[in-house]
Structures are given as structure tokens and as C-alpha cells.
Amino acid sequence: MISQSTIQEILNRIDIIDIVGGFVKLKKRGANYLGLCPFHNEKTPSFTVSPSKEIYKCFGCGRSGNAISFVMEHEKYSYVDALKWMANKYGIEIEETFATDEQRQQMQAADSLYIINSFAQQFFTKQLFETEEGQDIGLSYLKERGFREEIIKKFQLGYSPAQRDAFAKEAIAKQYNSELLLKTGLVVNRNEQLQDNYRGRIIFPVHNHSGKVLGFGARILKSNDKAPKYINTPENEIYVKSKILYGSYFARQSIDKADECLLVEGYTDVISLYQAGIENVVASGGTSLTADQLRLVKKYTNNLTIVYDGDSAGIKAALRGLDMALEEGLNVKLVLIPDNEDPDSYVNKVGPTIFREFVQRNKKDFILFQLNVALKDAGADSNKKAEVVNQIAETISRINKAEDFTKQQDYIKQCSEILKIDEGGLHALVNKFIRNRIVTQEKALPFEEAKLHEENAKKALETDYDDTTFNLLFKDELQEREFAKMLLQHGTKYWDEEQLVADHIFSEMIDESLLDNPDIISLVNVFKKQIQTAPGVLNKNYFIYHPDSKISSLAVSLLNFPYEESEHWRKEYSQATGYQKQLFEQGYEQFIQTVARDNDQQLMRYLKTDEDKTHLEVESALNYLKLRKIKRMLNENHEDLEKNHSKEEQDVLFRTHQHLKQMERSITEKLGTVILR
Asked: What number of helices (H) and strands (E) belong to the chain?
């Protein structure tokens, strides 16, 4: 993992305008910057970046975050990868720490494989463009297939010469390790000599999510019945086929914007579609879809459209991995290319516009398509039809996420109509498969964990929450968020001559059960710990760039832009002239400061009172939390009063009720309200 000193150095160097401005054209608007949102299509800029707060927010799609989360979201990087990207940008040397020597060795081996692959990619590309053999054989083949030179360079395609050891000699001359060269699959050992593995083939580099070369696919050009059409990199520390989707590095932003991923089979399918302007496309490499590949798709979108050949082999390939896709919560559609074509040949034949229209018109629902194919195969055979019923029920049972319940019920209704069977019967069969899978999963649990599951299930069955109790337990979290916001905004200010605002808040928060949101509880606990051990680091950036993504996201949302330009503000701006126009041009934040400084009575009507309301806001947030706690205690006490008790016990409960009501009245009087939501 990256050392804390390196992380701190990166955080000290971060300039959010510099980072975001590298991807989005920003225009200064007052104290902030404005641009077109990179996360959704818009014509009017609503993407706002605040250099003072070091956060961004789009008022169109609602996305917000800090510089690191922007890189993570835009480039689809992990937290560590985003830090490495920034370290590279600012020329910071990364210091990494390892728990064991084995981890260090694995990391060093992975780095070495990346270096060798990068060297190999450059070698193959040079052979393609700068040698006579590469141009005559490799480049001419690619151009005959319709690939333009710019797309060939973008995907870093190459050519491995027919010479037995051209690459091996070059690599050994550059002093690359023989064992690692063998591990990459670029060379093989024959008669104690290293020889090229991909000779006479077109080379397709396979990139990871940050653009590094993981491995290669090599396509033969000469007709040879004995040689395989494609050779792929063997699995090693960095190349794990089940976790790779070819083209994902180039497609990730387009998938995000289109909110749809097109899945094809081969390398050339991806490149041809991308060249035609259909950029939200990846390939499975001709293998069955895996759970890891589907999770990679889900990082970008919930909508997966599989575009495969229309022959029987293509249909079977498309149907593989369906159950896993459903379990991942993906919305899966299927498009079959007609006339013995594949996506590569078809888009070149009809052009991008007709291809897009064809895909949109011919999307088939995956489950219903599978059912129709199975019914066609079953024919009039009643036994086979019974198997189809079981098969489709099991498939529907895989739709197991709570938010997809309506979708599951809709499939049961549609499939029962197609099968011409009772809807209730199919529903019962689906539930049976769900129960069987739960039982199987529970059997795999350790005994103690299974026992805990059983106890929790029993408690859930015994509990019958009414609406009041439910609302008390899971109510609107506005009060909690306001409380956390006060802590972040004012926590390090002085409450009085002796204590900080945070000290006052924590002294008033005798009972942590005032809070329900686990992320807010985590933030509070981090604040408590830091104020005791290292109060000097406690500022908004400490939480905005916190390594715990939940705390960071919460901090960004709490410290978000407190206001945006209203229609009235924009109207006044359009009518303003001269000095007033200049003031409006500064933006609202600067406008407030300038008008207050100059005591401009004409424009004072736009200003809010600029007095320090820290004490008032903090007390208000604390009182609302206390009110909620009192309301809960009143509810519990009321339930207890309805049970049978001795006279003494009844008196105690009644006095408790009176005391709680008095506390409630006292706090509501302070707040100036008698309404508690």
C-alpha cells in the first residue's frame, strides 16, 4: 500500500482546478469555475468547481466529490490508482509499504511484467509501421480490413515478424529477465533457446483500466490448419483472463455517458465499432462471461447489450453467463447480427447509422429470448417442456436484489403466459429455487455464523413494526446531517475562551444513540480521535480527502455549495450595467463581500445577514437530535405504560412520562416550534 507520507505529499500538491481542468474546459464564474459536466450530456454548463472548498458539484446530474474522487469517477480508477495517477502528474515518487516479503515480491514481479509488456508493445508497433515486412504484410492486412491508421495507432496494434527470434534477441539485448519473458508468453523455450511465440501475427495489446498493457492477443495471417487462429497471453500476476474485457480502457467514459455497454466477442469487433463512432463497446475475448467481467461492466452501467453473431454458435455463446448477469443486477438485452455477419463485418457493410438503428430496433429481452429458444427446441415433448419450466424458474430466481422485485414479478407474469401455465404455480416454483439456494448457502456457513443468521431471522419474524416505530427508527436524516455539518464547519472554532465548538458538542452528546447513520457515526468517531491526538490536522480537507470513501463522500455532500444562482439573480445580472454588472460578474460569494464592504444600500437587499450564527446553528442541531431521542423514549415509555405493572412501577413510568414531556416542551420553546418531524 502507498505510505502515509506519500499520500500526504500528494494531498499537499493537489489543485482541483488543475486536475478537473485537464478533463473539462472550465470558465471562471466569480469565486468558482463552471463547465459542461463530463458525467452526462448537457448543453448548458451546470458543473461547478470550488477551488476554496476543493470540491465539485454538477447541479444537473447531482454528482459531486473532490479531486481524487473526480479522477476515480472519470477514469474509473480505484483509490490507489487515482493516487498513483496524481503522483505521476506531479512527479512524486511513490513509497509503498508491504505487510510481508511475499507481497513485495509479487508487486515487483507485476511491475516487471508491465515494463516488459510496454517494451514489447513498442517493438511490435515499430515493426508494423517502420519495417518493410510489417508494412507489406501486417499494415496492408489491417487496411484491407478497413482500419484507418489513426485507429490502429490508438489501439496500439502491432506486428510480430516471421523471423524465429526477432523479439527475443531484442529483449535479451536490452537485458530483460529470461524467466519473466517466458512468463509473459512473448517467448518460448525450444532447445534451450528463446524463440518468439507470436511470429508472423498481428498483435492486439490488451490494456487494463489505466492504460497499461496486461498482455496480448496474436492473430495468424497465413492459412495454417495446425496453428490456432489466436494465441493469447498465459495467465500470470497481471493477466487474469476472467477479469479482463478487451477495449474497456477506451470505452469506459463512453459507456458511462451512454449508460449502456455493448458486448461483442472479438478484438476486431471492438475496433471496427469504435472506428465507426460506437465507442461504448467491449469484448469478452470469445470466452464465457465471468462474474468478474460482469462486475467490471457494472462499474460503468447497469445496462448490458450483447451483440453476437446470429448463427447457432453465436446464440449459445450469448446465452452463457445469463444467470450471473441477473445476479449482478444487470439489465441484459440481446441483439443477433443477421446474414452470417459479425459486428465487425456488418458495421462495415451498412455503416454506423444503420448499425445503431438495427441495434435499437432488434434488442431482445434476454430471459424471454432464452425461453423462446428453449421452447422451440422442446417442441411437443412434454418432458422437455417441463425441463424448460424448471430452467426458466431457476433463471428468474436469480433476480434476487430487493430493488428488482417488481422486475421479477413481471417476468413471472410474462413467462407464465408464454408457457401457458398458472402464474401462481410458476411463482411458487421460483420461490422454491430461491429457498433452495438460501439453504445451500447457509449450509456453507460456519456453524456459529449460521446460528446467528437463524436468531436474526427469528427476531425479524417476531417483530411487527407499525409506521410510528418504523419512522422513529429509520426517519429522515436531515437532523443528523445538519449536526455533522456543524461539526465539520465549526468544530475547530472556539465556543468560549476555554473550549472548542467540538468539545461543547461532544459534552452535550452524552448518548451516541442520538445518531443512527453509521457513516455519520464513523465521521464523529474519527473527529473525536483526531481532536484528542492531532487536532492540528482537523480541517475540511482532512475529511474531504479521507481514505475512507464513505467519510469522504459524506464530507463532500455536507460541505457542498450552500446556494446556487436563482432566476432572480440571473435576471438582475442581465439588466445590470456598469459597476453593478462588475459586481454580479464576480459571483455571489464575492458579491456579498464587496457590497458589505462598500455599504451599497441599493444592492443590500440581495444580502443575507452576515453575523456569526455559529452558536445558534450548533445549539439548533443539538436540540433537534435531543428532541428525537426524547420522542423515542416517550414512545418506549408509552408502550411500557400499556403493560401490566404494580402501582409503584406505574407511578415511576407516569413520572418519567411527565419529565420527558417537560424536556420536550423546554427544547421546543428554545427552537421556537412545537413541530417535530
From this structure: 33, 16
pLDDT at 560 over 70: no
Q: Copy the grid coordinates of residue 239.
A: 493477466
Size of the chain, expressed as the number of residues it contains: 677
**Residue 149 is placed in which grid cell?**
491508421
pLDDT single digits (tens) 466-478 = 333 333 333 446 6
Query: What single DSSP character describes residue 363?
Result: -
Strand 261-264 with 303-309, pairing: parallel
Residue 149 has φ and ψ, to the nearest 5°, of -60, -35
Could you give the CA distance from residue 595 to residue 578 in angstroms, rounded to a whole number?
15
- The b-or-e profile of 395-420 (16+ CB within 10 A means b, else e) is bbbbbeeeebeebbeebbebbbeebe
User: How far is it, in rounded angstroms, from Cα 677 to Cα 672?
Assistant: 14
C-alpha closest to that of 472 among 654, 671, 627, 672: 627
Over 90: is that where the pLDDT of 54 sits? no
Q: If we measure between CA atoms, which residue out of 422, 429, 659, 552 comes closest to residue 67?
A: 552
CA separation for the pair 183, 186 (Å, rounded): 8
Q: CA end-to-end span of the chain, whole Å? A: 45
**In angstroms, rounded to a whole number, what is the distance separating the alpha carbons of residues 385 and 171?**
60
Q: pLDDT by residue (tens digit) across 572-618? A: 544 555 555 455 444 444 454 454 445 454 554 444 444 556 777 77
91 pLDDT band, cuts 50/70/90, is confident
Task: Provide the pLDDT confidence category of residue 116 given band limits of 50, 70 and 90.
Answer: very high
| Burial class of residue 188, CB neighbours in 10 A (0-12, 13-18, 19+) | middle
Cell numbers describing residue 373: 429458444
Q: What is the residue whose three cell numbers read 433476480? A: 399
